[in-house]
Amino acid sequence: MRRHHVMPLAALLLCAPTLAGTAPAAAAPQARPAAAPTPAAPLRILLTNDDGYDVPGIRKAFERLTAAGHDVTIVAPLTNQSGTGTKMASAPSIAVRHPAPKVWAVDGTPGDSVAFGLSEVFEGRAPDLVVSGTNFGPNVAGLATHSGTVGGAVAALESGVPAIALSTGGVTAPDPVTTVNAMGPTVDFAVKLIDRLRARAPRSGPLLPAGVGLNVNHPIVGADGKGTAAGVSSTFQDPQTLLRPDFTDAGDGTWTTSVKVDLRPAARGGDVEAVSAGRIAVSPMSADWNTGPVDFVRTAALIAGLRP
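User: That's the sequence. What structure does it adopt?
Assistant: Structure tokens below.
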């Protein structure tokens, strides 16, 4: 199975300017204390998903990111597009609705939505970040390969815009109530992660190196889903598929279909292991699908000390 891969994140670790100087001469006046650094400016964020433009996950993300001071615009599918992966631009025309000042609903895939948003809604000035999610259910292991949530992030990366795919759920079938409850902690963590990216990014530079994205999977913790995750792990995409299709011949030229969960032992250090242990999985990814080396060590450095 192919994995998302990532370019080195060295730029993230070389960005905070330092203040240096020599001690003043004896006759010189006492130097004033250095001023506190100016907080990073709020971001312009394109928010998308694959579940639809008006579902709980994207509404919670919009509310929390806006409350954090960011300028957020939803450009997301009109209808549920789960499992569409990176599909985009498959029709000669596309319908777009604009039901609210900060909301655009695109009758297409997450990739179509992001493409429209970058071309039209953010025409002339790309957003600082694309956030895709939070998704209803996890996007770990093979699920990430086919995920529309991840697909929306990939569409942004292809256009040179930093992106985060955000998902909520464990590796078992999601329960609607607990999953929706867990979306709150998921988006709260996303706000912290974005603050970390802003703090580490070069002055006036992008939040992540070109082509780099993060696939974030937040577990469901507690019986009500409102619990706090056990920690944050830098992970890779577990190489197992998780889901296996099953086909039965109906004898009339049609086949009935179903999908079975085929959960195998988790790969050590992978996203399945982290989420199964109640930890937030943060996996680097890129849009080019190359099989070159991936710098997970620098991803770990990026999130070091970050708490749920």
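Residues 176-200 form the longest helix (25 residues).
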